[in-house]
Design brief:
The complex is a heterodimer of chains A (572) and B (262).
Chain A: H1 3-13, H2 16-21, H3 26-42, H4 46-49, H5 62-76, H6 87-114, H7 119-122, H8 130-164, H9 169-197, H10 203-232, H11 249-262, H12 267-307, H13 326-334, H14 338-353, H15 355-378, H16 384-388, H17 392-404, H18 406-415, H19 426-430, H20 437-466, H21 472-493, H22 510-532, H23 536-558
Helix pairs in contact in A: 3-8, 5-8, 6-8, 6-9, 6-10, 6-11, 8-9, 9-11, 9-12, 10-15, 11-12, 13-14, 14-20, 15-18, 17-22, 18-20, 18-21, 20-21, 20-23, 21-22, 21-23
Chain B: E1 5-14, E2 17-27, E3 32-36, H1 43-50, E4 58-63, E5 66-67, H2 72-78, E6 79-82, H3 94-104, H4 109-122, H5 138-150, E7 156-160, H6 168-183, E8 187-191, H7 195-201, E9 204-209, E10 212-217, H8 219-226, H9 231-239, H10 244-257
Parallel strand pairs in B: 3-8, 3-9, 6-7, 7-8
Antiparallel strand pairs in B: 1-2, 1-4, 4-5, 9-10
Helix pairs in contact in B: 3-4
The chains are: A mainly alpha (572), B alpha/beta (262).
Amino acid sequence: MNFFDKFFLKLFLYASPLLQKLEIDIDQLKAILVAKLTMDNRRPAAFQQMKQSKEKKEINSATLKTMFVSLIMGLFFLMGFAIGDDMTTKLTIFFSMFIFMLAATLITDFTSVLIDTRDNLIILPKPVSDTTFVTARLMHIAIHINKLLLPLALPTLVALIVRYGPATIVPFILMTFFATLLSIFLVNAVYLVILKLVKPSKFQTVISYFQIVFAVFIYGGYQLVPRMMERAGIEHLKMSEIHNIAFLPPYWFADACNSLSTLTFDQGNIINLFMALGLPLLSIYVVVKYFAPAFNRNLSMISSTSEETKVKPVTAQGTAGFKMNWLEKLATKITSDRTEYMGFLFTWKMMGRSRDFKMKVYPAFGYMVVFFVLMIFQSEKLSLNDFSEMTSRGKTLFISIVYFSSFILISAIGQLRYSEKYKAAWLFSITPVDTPGKLISGALKSVIACFYIPVMLLITFLGLFLIGPSIIPNLVLGCFNVIAVSTLMTYMNLRQLPFTVSMQDAPKGQTMIRNMIATLLPLIAGLCHWFIFDYLWAVGLLALLAIIATWMIMDSIKNLGWAKIVNFEVKG
Amino acid sequence: MEPIISIRNLYKSYGSKQVLKDISIDILPGQVIGYIGPNGAGKSTTVKILCGLISDFSGQVTIKGYDIRQNPLAVKSIIGYVPELAELYDVLTPREFLSLVGALYNLPSEVVSERGYGMLEAFGLAGNMDQRMESFSKGMKQKVLITSGLLHNPDIIILDEPLSGLDANSVIIVKELISKLAASGKTIFYSSHMMDIVEKVSDRIILINEGKVVADGTFSELKQKQGDNSLEQIFAHLTATESMSEASDKLMDIIANGDGKA
């Protein structure tokens, strides 16, 4: 517990006499809150979950770190002040970002922080009344929200006071409060929709996809918004002049804030003020009255299904023998040996099924998409001619797309060694595997087949469609360069069997350098490619060389003996 | 004597799957009930209902005269529950965890620290009072959980596989503790897979299979009725569809000859 926790706890407990009237047990309430806040403080903060948790040491003051990140976000919101001349416009931008950030953070936090399924086994069997427990949960949520909210809103409040004077303080705080209520409603709505659409057991998975999308969205927003602003020339934008703006909640909050602090009330202001106060209240009423009961019911389903994994009924005699599926057929085609074959299949299945791996690798796809959009945005006068004629701009774009796609491959390879279930690696040391390199080469082939072939096909298709068959030699060179570089990096870096290293053992300092090399190598290859792009004979020759290099490095990986595997005892 | 736990015509289903089908049991104070059954028989569901975690069942469950649905709080304060698989908030220290639990049972904090410390000391964990439980072994966590379940001196103790992860010496401690608790008049509901321990600690064994009670009585009664020697054999006899030795023969055949049709 830190200063903020103690402060909020004290603040809430001022309401004790009132709570006691509602038959809430204050001691129990306090005990639950103290435990919850202490746990929050020791849990990796939301922004740390996406990264590998590198530290084995105990986590302290996670709360303060989260608040610090929120504060940075809050400072970022200040860019809203660069837009428009009037307060309503500036605040509309602020409230839009504020509601989005708060709702998105809460959606991911709800499962990891605010709703702990262990409560069902620890708190519920104790003589705690439902009202006490629900109140404790609500207060915990309220404290949690406050810790996000204050640093998010503080910079804007300061800017407002500086720019428009202290009369803005009370209206701004009031409107922030109502915007928060609306965000809570949004979070609840999203949760209910997810719960309606998917089985409770899949809930956690959907939330983690949501986290991925959220991360990509933030990245994209960070990259795109400033550029868009530059181009649209919206420094002098006036929100109130935008058509249909009156339908957007952030505008109500902003306008209400404006009219309350300047004490001007025309008809439009009053409608906005009414909406800004009324809608959040209505939505919170809906949450309490209709959403919360359904929510709690569904929540117990999430926990009960995750506790008891139900064994599916055995299909009569259908399980006799193992039939080859398409994946196994593919595996036999591209691997040369039983061990490599198993390495391929094992990796494929682990990649597809472990949430951990997906959480780390899938964002790369999102970043790719953002990157593509960015490229197209920046080359404003880009036309299809650039591609069909292969002007230097088209050439650059083509090379960048081909070589930047290696990013996905590289991040997947980098993640390959880590797993939560790293302890299951005993399997590899008790079985008579003669050359473990075969497992690594199988795994690498699996990563390429799973993450790169689809991208490659897409690029090929686009290339043929936009440019025509003349691009084929360059395509072959580009793709094989990417594969060769990734294979080389695997050979140099990956000296562990797939999924055998604990996340916590991820190296700390080296990653920076490794990431630099990882981005540098494809970049250099791409640059070289750019220079020889038009010399068909060189392209052809180098493509051939890239293929041979890939083949040779792959062979070296395959022959890595136990002595080269770093996290296993050398076998006799 | 008035039964302390009375279960009447208990039915419970998850969706279309009927988990408990007409369970009726009366348990007297001071009894040690060994509640056994194969996976999916409905053991955990029964335990959850007794702890007041599940309320959408049909039938009547009365504990010490209280209807569990009408008076859940009264029931919960006389039950001590030790869940399986060391489910606890492991970023907390034992001291923090026990004060949470103590407050939830409305125990004064002096009592909590006195009893909690004393019990953990008896378990050999006195030196770990202020360490976070993240680094604890399964057995250590289990000891903390047992402590938390007994902290408020409950009349009824519900144990769900309480010995998992404990080392041999701790198993002896807990087994003896169970007998002594029963001797002092506590009622113990012991749900487990470990036949040999159930056989030794319980004075009444209830075997359920597919949601129904298939055997109920003392170990010697069951032995007489079934004509088997050990609880393991009685269990197999009553719940297995195929004979165990047939299954092991088949396994042996496959290992030795490569197929099961030898």
